[in-house]
Design goal:
Elements: E1 2-8, H1 12-23, E2 28-32, E3 45-46, H2 48-53, H3 60-66, E4 68-70, E5 72-77, E6 80-86, H4 87-91, E7 100-102, H5 105-118, E8 124-125, E9 128-134, E10 139-144, E11 150-160, H6 167-172, E12 178-180, E13 184-193, E14 201-204, E15 211-215, E16 221-228, H7 245-251, E17 255-265, E18 268-271, E19 276-277, E20 280-282, E21 288-289, H8 297-316, H9 326-351, H10 355-373, H11 376-387, E22 402-403, E23 406-407, E24 416-417, E25 420-421, E26 432-436, H12 441-450, E27 453-457, H13 461-466, E28 473-476, E29 482-486, H14 491-501
Parallel strand pairs: 1-2, 1-11, 2-8, 5-14, 11-20, 26-27
Antiparallel strand pairs: 3-7, 4-7, 5-6, 9-10, 10-11, 12-18, 13-16, 13-17, 14-15, 15-16, 18-21, 19-20, 22-23, 24-25, 26-28, 28-29
GO molecular function, one term: monooxygenase activity
InterPro entries: FAD-bd, FAD/NAD-bd_sf, RIFMO-like
Organism: Dyella mobilis
């Protein structure tokens, strides 16, 4: 019963981690204490950056075909639309996926589990982690299976993808500071009609409770996500849809014909003090939880998984020293803290009570937001932030060099010149080099000696427009982020990057 990595929790974070590792030849075991996969979900949005990264798992097309593209977001005040943000026109030059994609978490998990099972790995359900120990060379975990029998499981590492009440986090003693929003959230899947059922996202900024209407793939279907903050919040467990439906029907003119699912919950905003202790790691909700503002939670957990997966694989295949795993927390914890702070501020704004808050939200914001939407820089800032394409690891230990606006740790800018898409090669789950222009022979030879894939693009104006510079050497990590930017274009800098860190490509394993 030995594996390289024991993954605890089969939500999107754990499943993506298992898929990545299995694709890279790492033996995983993934368990979940739930007897069945979830049939309902709160997470809906699959952001552009996640769709970009999913190309490595050949998942992007399947996710897009099964979900719904949200091309615009609308803000409502006093029963009418006050502003619109057209996502498709904002992100067209920034990403192949200039939209928010709605793909409910339960369907998402089924797709991931099916892909994993096709690779020979099945989620072990009704299997619970009872505890584990780390002796410095291995993890020994105690599990209880579906038959009630207990067994020991040995692994090189354990990955806690086990949610907000993580036993892995509790076992390593990682503090989880933060708080709980006093508002009660509700979620309702409905069949309905009205102006807010037009396939776009609609958010109400009125004086009462927060409410958002998310379109689903089936026409006339939507998910309502809202809050209650008066005396109803004290009886969250007994709330029914009838207790919260007036707001949607009156303010946003949603005519509900049928309620297929309704649930209430409370939301925390917390970040663990550490994402790693020894051979145990925390990912997703086990490491950070925050308000649903911006649809960031599930995407951030998936980002954790992809960041950690190639590092696990590199160490386990002998392509990197154990110290590489320290970069996981260094790169992800700062982003998680900023995200919790940002989503907390947004959520506080849309739910704040009092005359001043209502005035800002219902009078000032409707005047300012349309004006801001006219400015390209403001529109791009919003899209880059929500889509997570602005996320970078510039301050991380693996990032080096700069040229123009691009620095080590950044996401590679997307550019299409003629029929050539510079993201096409990013399906490769390994280190690679990009040169836009001409690659010197010594760089070509160096790539061959190191076992690096080299992509050379004939120089075109489109690359300059995207922020790329001619003849610069861009070294990309296995998760497609830029590791090294070398404006000198010399082989010595490239060779030194690997030798100084004890790294080598996974294909050299």
């Amino acid at each position: 019963m030995r594996s390289d990595v024991l993954i605890v929790g089969a939500g999107p974070t754990g499943l993506v981690l298992a898929l990545w590792l299995t694709k890279l030849g790492i033996k995983v075991r993934i368990i979940d204490k739930a007897a069945e996969a979830g049939t309902s979900s709160r997470a809906l949005a699959v952001q552009a950056r996640t769709l970009e990264l999913y190309r490595q798992l050949d998942l992007t097309d399947a996710v897009i075909e099964s979900g719904h593209r949200v091309q615009a977001a609308n803000l409502w005040v006093k029963g009418g639309k006050a502003a619109q943000l057209r996502l498709a026109t904002i992100g067209t030059d920034l990403t192949p996926y200039p939209f928010v994609h709605v793909f409910p978490q339960d369907q998402h998990e089924r797709l991931l589990a099916q892909r994993l099972e096709a690779l020979g790995v099945k989620v072990e359900r009704a299997t619970e982690l009872l505890g584990f120990s780390d002796d410095g060379t291995r993890v020994l975990a105690r599990l209880r299976g579906a038959d009630g029998q207990e067994q020991d499981c040995e692994a090189s590492y354990i990955a806690g993808c086990d949610g907000a009440r993580s036993l892995v986090r509790e076992t390593i003693g990682a503090e989880f500071p933060g708080g709980t929003y006093r508002q009660v959230f509700y979620v309702a899947d409905v069949e309905a009609s009205g102006p807010a059922l037009d396939g776009q996202l609609h958010i109400d900024l009125d004086e009462a409770d927060f409410l958002a209407v998310f379109p689903l793939a089936n026409q006339g279907s939507a998910r309502l996500i809202g809050t209650v903050r008066d005396e109803r919040a004290d009886r969250a467990e007994t709330l029914r849809f009838e207790d919260v439906s007036d707001r949607a029907m009156e303010q946003m003119k949603v005519d509900v014909a049928k309620v297929n699912w309704f649930s209430t919950y409370r939301v925390h905003h917390r970040v663990a003090k550490h994402f790693r202790k020894g051979r145990a790691f925390l990912l997703g909700d086990a490491a950070h939880i925050h308000s649903p503002a911006g649809g960031q939670g599930m995407n951030t957990g998936i980002g954790d998984a992809i960041n950690l997966a190639w590092k696990f694989a590199s160490v386990l295949h002998g392509c990197a020293p154990e110290a590489l795993l320290d970069s996981y927390e260094a790169e992800r914890i700062g982003f998680a803290r900023r995200l919790v702070h940002t989503t907390d501020r947004v959520f506080t704004f849309v739910t704040a009570e009092g005359r001043v808050a209502d005035l800002v939200r219902t009078r000032i914001a409707p005047l300012l937001l349309p004006t801001m939407a006219h400015f390209q820089a403001a529109r791009e800032y919003v899209f880059r932030t929500v889509s997570q394409i602005t996320l970078n690891y510039r301050e991380g230990p693996l990032s080096q060099g700069s040229a123009g606006h691009l620095r080590g740790g950044d996401r590679l800018p997307w550019a299409v010149a003629g029929d050539e898409d510079n993201f096409a090669s990013l399906a490769l789950m390994d280190w690679q080099v990009h040169v836009y222009g001409k690659a010197p022979q010594d760089v070509i030879d160096c790539c061959k000696s190191l076992g690096l894939s080299l992509q050379v693009f004939d120089w075109q104006p489109e690359y300059a427009e995207a922020g790329l510079l001619e003849n610069v050497v861009y070294l990309l990590r296995p998760d497609t982020y830029v590791a090294l930017v070398d404006p000198t274009g010399t082989w010595e800098t490239l060779a030194r990057y690997f030798s100084s860190r004890g790294l080598k490509p996974l294909q050299r394993a």
